[in-house]
Amino acid sequence: MEEAKNPTAAEPKKLNFLEEIIEDDLKSGRVTSVMTRFPPEPNGYLHLGHAKSLCINFGLAQKYGGKTNLRYDDTNPTKEDTEYVDAIKEDIKWMGFHWDKELYASDYFDQLYEWAEQLIKEGLAYVDDQTQEEISKGRGTVDTPGTESPWRNRSVEENLRLFREMKAGKYADGEKVLRAKIDMASPNMMFRDPLLYRIKHASHHRTGDKWCIYPMYDFTHGQCDSIEHITHSICTLEFDVHKPLYDWFIKTLRIWPSHQYEFARLNLTYTLMSKRKLLELVQKGLVSGWDDPRMPTLCGVRRRGYTAEALKMFCEKIGVSKRDQMMDIQLLEWCVRQDLNARANRYMVVRNPLKLTITDWEPGKVEWFDCPLNPADPEGATRKVPFTGELYIEREDFMEDAPKKFFRLKPGGEVRLKYTYIIKCEEVVKDEDGNVVELRCSHDPSTRPGGGEWRSVKGTIHWVSVPHATEITVRNYDRLFTKEDMNDIPEGKDYKDYLNPESLTVAKAFAEPALADDQSGIAVQFERTGYFFKDPDSTPEGLIFNKTTSLKDSYRPE
Fold first, then answer.
1. How far apart are CA 133 and CA 135, in angstroms?
2. Which of 265, 408, 418, 448 is catalytic?
3. What is the pTM of this model?
4. Contact 272, 266 (CB under 8 A)
5. Do the Cβ atoms of 555 and 328 come closer than 8 Å?
6. CA 62: distance to chain centroid?
7. Is position 275 annotated as part of the catalytic site?
8. How far apart are CA 390 and CA 299, in angstroms?
9. d(CA 81, CA 60)
10. Which one of the listed residues 19, 41, 117, 426 is annotated catalytic?
11. How far apart are CA 17 and CA 320, in angstroms?
């Protein structure tokens, strides 16, 4: 008799294709332990795309009891800086990941040079005197074979001499390059005598002026993986075309066989993740810096109030695939809200104040209410909120000519002031231009929570005591770009044409005093409004809060 299935039993989670590869490799004995690496180039700050790569590389190693190296791809001294090296480490730590070894491609410059000489001696590399333009033209096209360099058949002895003279600094930048000798007619353009070394008379952030020749990416990455015994070299799909060359160098040099695997990079609506273009935004002053909260950099979203937990949740939800797709930024924002809703402290903040006076309140009397910091934890901590006869409420919470289903305050209407009493609007005070400047209300003492008889009203609004209000600055951030797909810029247009002129607005607001003492270290919720994060520019005399995300929207993840 067939055993009945338990409909409530949790289905085992399906493995992604990288997990399947690793499990097969462990089962077959190809590898006995997992070693991955995260290999950023220190020429900019990490962005949201790197968050996905971090979660994959570190996450897979953690799952299978392995390790991950942090290895900087520092082979281009003109674009790299220790500022970026330090920032990358800070971002990785913030994401909650820990590397095994901190390494640099420059650690292997001597070994890479020896391997270059090995290829020359085996007749598989040569020094080329052509210009970059001539080399590019000589490669041919997908449909036509390339043209061999006139310097391709130099002798081994001449190539060794010239390459050593390149290393000694005899030649100027661009005067000569070292190329692999493979096949100028190969259908794979990568095999048409790729560049191995170029001359750059530039000081390196670690090796100083020791070198004036630097290896190209394709002659660096696979060999570094091999030296470190990286079992699974995981990168994004655009490196798929580099994989045959990656394998060719490892096989030709007869070194330890690392293997490369590719996954789809992260594309996000209304977002640009090109380090070159992000650097341009910084250099041209179109944003305040790499950590501008509108930037998709990890330091930028951190300053905005996104949490590492939310980013990990997002990466888990989008999964790992082999096909590029555009992800909706609303899913990321949903993950941020999900995380903060469970953890964020709540405070009342009025952004567009309208004064409300309780006429039957004893002058000077202050009543303090114990209010929960997070309603999700009813037994958790509370904050003290002062209540007086002079309050601020949101201007939008009052309407003089209110429609039938308007359940906030209106003339003659009642609402509950959150955590406190029910009040009734008795009088509307206007200035000489007819603008409402004050509401005069009465309160019902019997409606104090925890005392008297409970009475329900349909509307509840937040408020702040005027004498106790802390004035704060609120930076309201919106999306940096107005175009949904920033990877699809029409001909004749520039990505900067789609900068959102309303991506930042600044306003004053009034907060309950407990907000100034919040030490949670994460974004807080302004009740009924959204989540906001205290900016590092804040001082005790001038608090600044950055809008993290709205309280809710219509988006629902599938």
1. 5
2. 265
3. 0.92
4. no
5. yes
6. 21
7. yes
8. 41
9. 29
10. 41
11. 8
